[in-house]
Amino acid sequence: MTKHLKLYIDGEWLDSVNPDRQEVINPANQEVIAQAPQATKEETEKAIRIARSTFESGIWSEQTPGERAEVLYQIANKIEAHAEELTELEVLNNGKTIREAEADVADALHTFRYYAGLLQNQTDETFEAEKDLQTMIVKEPMGVAGLIVPWNFPILMSVWKIAPALAAGNSIILKPAEITPMTAVKLYELFEQTDLPKGVAQLVLGTGAVAGQTLSESKDVDIVSFTGSTKVGQQIMQAAAGNLKKVSLELGGKSPNIVFNDADIDLAVDYGLFGIFMGAGQVCTSGSRLLIQEDIYETFVEKFIEKAKAIRVGPGNDKASEMGAIVSNKHMDSIMEYIQIGKEEGAHLVLGGKRIEKDGLEKGFFIEPTVFTNVTSDMRIVREEIFGPVIVIQTFKDEEEAIHVANDTDYGLAGAVFSTDQAKAVRVIKKVRAGITWVNNYHLSSVQSPWGGYKTSGIGRSLGKYGLDEYQETKQINISMNPERSDWFDGEK
Ligand code: NAP
Ligand code: MG
């Protein structure tokens, strides 16, 4: 039986008046898991109104940091208690592997605990600005936060926004991607079992064009925080201009992974594979451009292909699968189109390139790990984000060229360097224009560290104290300790 999902507004589960529904599908076999509502503009506006009124009531925004932290700990504990169910739902709906989903759920509950702790460690600044003028700098919630998330990390991207937004005292409206609402719904069911006051957190299931656009435009929303494509990020920024709401944008990337001839090649191959094939390449920080120094190119490519060939692609819920499904038919088509473009552009397809249509996988959306060599910087497969298990491998002569090629992109999200010369590795990574970078590893990062991109990869930073800052206003309060008249307009003098 398919589940019939609802909107969650003001502490109530509601049906949408819109008869149109989104079928939620398991991408591993195309079975229908659920029917999701497509909220109307009016329903989205209602969610915003409720968030505004609970914010203004102070029921959450005026709780002390200690009180709010307590609720965040309760949420973390609920996630922990339901970790297995959340993991299964994520695998079912997104198509990722159990191992990947387990990591996401663990990261999600850790994020709530981290912000609960951080909140209690955030203290206001105060100083004597001039004699008897005491200044306080205080942090306050922004107000109403619209949170719009993509399908690649449904629970994790939701939590990376919800945890700091709630910690700061905001009221929120979450809009998950239409095709992956399952774990967000579960998360809200768990919120109901905590002391989070009714009306603080709303869940709007609907399309980007209606629900997402309404959140971005609304004059009653103070910040819109978005993760997704650069194109939609630009639309959101335009829509947000109406009331000059704050925008926090985590967008796409085409991240370089640079391997020098003095690197530990096996290590570089290992992380090269992890960098692109984890999440079937549907990761914003994927290392989708490998830059290999000329003299080790052949050895590297040979080892890389041998290992990539051995990756077991299959349904996420099969423990043996190392790489899962592509999230949707539409997205699979878009990746296949890029593979075709690569061939037409004259790149050498040296591995994969096909949809997998045997052993039961024909029912789902699976693509072989795909490797292109002999690419040039002007090719579309080198410039555009494919967001799938497709890597392009380029060569470089020396340090200077490596940096040039790495930065020859409109994006600036992530990047990595492999070398046993630490000084060189750090020198080069500092020249890579990107916000999330690695030396001798890929994808390793923590909740303490700011997450975000340079150039067209976004604005602002998630996670760490920077992530809490995104959802706060900063106010100065100047207090006369011993008030005296200014005598500015006194006439005499
Ligand atoms: P997307 O179109 O950018 O969608 C992300 C979220 O924004 C979804 O919830 C979407 O709603 C919503 N949205 C769409 N149009 C909107 C609008 N006009 N106003 C407000 N919200 C809007 O991403 P996608 O369709 O999921 O994937 C397309 C491409 O985005 C991928 O191929 C990839 O390049 C990139 N992407 C990047 C990341 C990342 O982490 N940086 C993550 C996912 C995707 P719907 O439910 O209608 O889609
Ligand atoms: Mg979309």
Brief summary of the model shown:
This protein has 493 residues and is of the alpha/beta class. It contains 15 helices and 23 strands.
- Described by its quaternary structure, the protein is single chain
Give the terminus-to-terminus CA distance.
85 Å
What Rg do the Cα atoms give? 24 Å
Task: Sketch the major β-sheet.
Answer: 7 strands, mixed
The helix tally amounts to 15
- Strand adjacency order, main sheet: 15-16-17-14-13-19-20
Average pLDDT figure: 97
Number of beta strands: 23
User: Which word captures the global form?
Assistant: globular
Assign the structural class, choosing from mainly alpha, mainly beta, alpha/beta, alpha+beta, or little secondary structure.
Answer: alpha/beta
Which ligands are bound? NADP nicotinamide-adenine-dinucleotide phosphate, magnesium ion
Strand proportion, as a percent range, falls in 15-25%
